[in-house]
Backbone:
């Protein structure tokens, strides 16, 4: 199965999603901020990154995704956030704004999380 890096500042979400992903045989590595996420993206060599948009700063996830892509990191990234529910902006439609391979709206059901992960990993 895949090694998945999850970067989110919500420890409850991280633990719940980790349980769901591990139940399907995935290995899950956790980061709670952009710095940990960047270090683990480079050091752990994950197959997929699940990345929250808003952490310590409102754009931490977006900035990290841009930095990884600029540095040539090709690991698929799925952005996670409730931001579009609040702002009405559909982040998933522009690679320039959001350099990612997919987007999941929080709260995300276990079924939707697993479906998106499997879809991205099959590409």
Residues:
């Amino acid at each position: 199965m895949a090694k998945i890096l999850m970067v989110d500042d919500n420890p409850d979400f991280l633990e719940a999603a980790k349980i769901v992903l591990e139940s399907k045989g995935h290995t899950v590595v956790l980061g709670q901020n952009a710095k940990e996420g960047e270090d683990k993206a480079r050091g752990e060599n994950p197959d997929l990154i699940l990345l929250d948009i808003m952490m310590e700063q409102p754009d931490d996830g977006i900035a990290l995704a841009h930095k990884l892509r600029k540095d040539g990191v090709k690991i698929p990234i799925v952005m996670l956030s409730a931001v579009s529910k609040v702002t009405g902006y559909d982040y998933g439609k522009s690679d320039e704004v959001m350099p990612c391979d997919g987007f999941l709206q929080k709260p995300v059901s276990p079924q939707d999380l697993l479906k998106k992960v499997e879809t991205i990993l099959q590409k």
